[in-house]
Amino acid sequence: MDTSGLNRREFLRKGAAAAITAALSTALPGAMPARAQDKSETDLFRQINRAKDKNKLQGLELGHVPQIHAPDSIKAGVPFEAEVRVGEKLHEMVPSHYIDWIDLYADDIFLTKFILTPNLTQPVCKIMITLDRSATLRAIEHCNLHGLWEGARPITVTP
Ligand SMILES: [Fe+2]
């Protein structure tokens, strides 16, 4: 490499700074982009976020509260299909902003985890479930920029 225009110390200083910048920008895939965050954005990561009014989603709730589609009532022991969609307005899935996983529970019992890849998947997941008692299905998703969000749907089980 031609360094005739720079003295050796300046060349090494600039090279080290460039290497550190490059390492930091690639070492943490999905890391927060370098920009100022207000308190409301950082608070999203300190809690599980839920809709304030599930019948009237607003702001970030529109793209983040999981929507669970399933029958209101099922028969005990008979499998049924449940679909989880992240957002009333489906959340984007690009490398800089995406849903990286969705967990599904029946009350506090873990059922499954969906792990998603930006660009190649959409945050829509289906699964067959069998319940033997009434329960609330709870979906918790993680957005790389907006933290954890929960949506819920009660399912009544009849004998
Ligand atoms: Fe998001």
Concise structural overview:
By secondary structure, the protein is of the alpha+beta class. Helix content is 18%, strand content 36%. Residues 20-32 have low confidence and may be disordered.
Describe the structure.
It is a single chain. The longest helix is centred in the first third of the chain and has 20 residues. Strands 1, 3, 5, 6, 8 and 9 form a six-stranded mixed beta sheet that branches. Strands 2-4-7 form a three-stranded antiparallel beta sheet, with no helix packed on it. About 8% of the residues have low confidence. By secondary structure, the protein is an alpha+beta fold. It has two domains: 31 residues; 120 residues, SOR catalytic domain (Immunoglobulin-like), CATH 2.60.40.730. Helices cover 18% and strands 36% of the residues. It binds fe (ii) ion. Fe (ii) ion (FE2) binds next to helix 3. The site of fe (ii) ion has 7 residues, from helix 3.
Spell out the key features of this protein:
18% helix, 6-stranded mixed beta sheet, alpha+beta, 159 residues, Immunoglobulin-like, elongated, 2 domains, binds fe (ii) ion, 9 strands
Extract low-pLDDT stretches. 20-32
What is the first-to-last residue Cα distance? 78 Å
Along the chain, the helix and strand elements come as HHEHEEEEEEEE
Categorize the overall geometry. elongated
**Number of DSSP E strands:** 9
Largest sheet: 6 strands, mixed
Classification by helices and strands: alpha+beta
| Alpha plus pi helix count | 3
Query: Which CATH first-tier class of the largest domain would you pick?
Result: Mainly Beta
Please report which band the strand proportion falls in: under 5%, 5-15%, 15-25%, 25-35%, 35-45% or over 45%: 35-45%
Q: Overall pLDDT, averaged?
A: 86
Ligands (ions, cofactors included)? fe (ii) ion
The value of Rg in angstroms is: 22 Å
Q: Domains counted in the coordinates: how many?
A: 2
CATH architecture of the largest domain: Sandwich
The CATH homology group name of the largest domain: SOR catalytic domain
* CATH topology (fold) name of the largest domain: Immunoglobulin-like
Give the proportion of residues in helices.
10-25%
